[in-house]
Amino acid sequence: MSNVSRLALALEAGDVVLPDAGRIAVFGPRAGHDLGALPAERCHVITGYKPDHDHFAGLGYACAVEPEGRYAAAVVVLPRAKALAQARIAQAAAVTDGPVIVDGAKTDGVESVLKACRKRAEVSPPLSKAHGKLFSFRAADGFDDWADDAPQEIAGGFVTAPGVFSADAIDPASALLAGALPRKLGATVADLGGGWGYLSARVLEREDVEVLHLVEADHAALACARLNVKDPRAVLHWEDATRWRPEAKLDCVVTNPPFHAGRSAEPDLGRAFIAAAAGMLKPGGQLWLVANRHLPYEAEMARCFARVEEMAGDARFKVLQGRGLARKGR
Q1: DSSP 261
Q2: 141: left (phi > 0), else alpha (psi -120 to 50), else beta?
């Protein structure tokens, strides 16, 4: 049973009552999350993740990356990251005049969030269903200290934000890839899933790079990248890396692709990055990719590239290079 089923059951039972009028903010729903229990014409979907934003916009929902004005009610779909979950709840409480509904899976920490909310507001009896819980409270001022989602500085002078990938330190896989890259990469380069900009910053240490496209789906991470990568050769794109295409074919792509959907490993996402990279490269172009050692990316690399080689690695990670596009039909 999906998370939205908890919401539908709570509304049907009267455990949660929506105001008769006014907009309803929905914070952080993922693509495929059924919002059918809510009046679509009143919903305002708030998400900074580009694939989710495009999904709900395509269904006709009004969408934005930040709240706009005030709301009669709010639904917060809990993310995995605790700091991000707290920031979203605080944001919802600050802009909502009616109930704030929190819906999350146990694996996303809903139990601890419920316990913390009880110390700050009068919380409704939780509805437990499908390995998760839903509860609500009237918007209150007791969540201000959760609202600190401002960029924070980490080692190396980079800034990150709560909830973005590798928020506390430079990702070791990305550091391994950066150290393995050759002195020359070509004039035009893309960093797919560039996050808050570490790899792009390292690529731009090379004078031969004329243009670097940093492609990132997380709006918050991209905002950090704008602070971390100020080189005028960098062009930043808020896009799904598996769908974005450059205006002209590239010399090189670098990537540390995500490989999780929720808490489950999903190698198909990394494979989609590889196929996308091959589609945007010149015939003699090259892909540099880092991945956890257990992920089976070599077959997709061999399908897309004429030559595939492990260029660096350790017990945890491997750096693969694909060079020259494979012939069609291979």
Answers
A1: E
A2: alpha
| Measured CA angle at 287 (ends 285, 293), to 5 deg | 160
Fold of the domain spanning 3-146:
Rossmann fold (3.40.50)
The string of pLDDT tens digits covering residues 272-295 is 999 999 999 999 999 999 999 999
Which DSSP helix (H) or strand (E) runs through 225?
A: helix 219-228
> Which amino acid does the sequence have at 306?
A
pLDDT digit string (tens) for 206-235? 999 999 999 999 999 999 999 999 999 999
Q: What is the DSSP letter of 315?
A: S
CATH class assigned to 152-325: alpha beta
C-alpha–C-alpha distance, residues 69 and 67, integer Å:
6
Instruction: Examine domains 3-146 and 152-325 and report if their fold is the same.
Output: yes
72: which 2 tokens? 């009669």
Closest CA to 32 of 231, 191, 262, 309: 262
* 273 φ, ψ (degrees, to nearest 5): -65, -40
Strand 234-238 relative to strand 211-216, pairing: parallel
Q: What pairing do the DSSP bridges indicate for beta strands 132-138 and 99-105?
A: antiparallel
Q: What is the pTM of this model?
A: 0.91
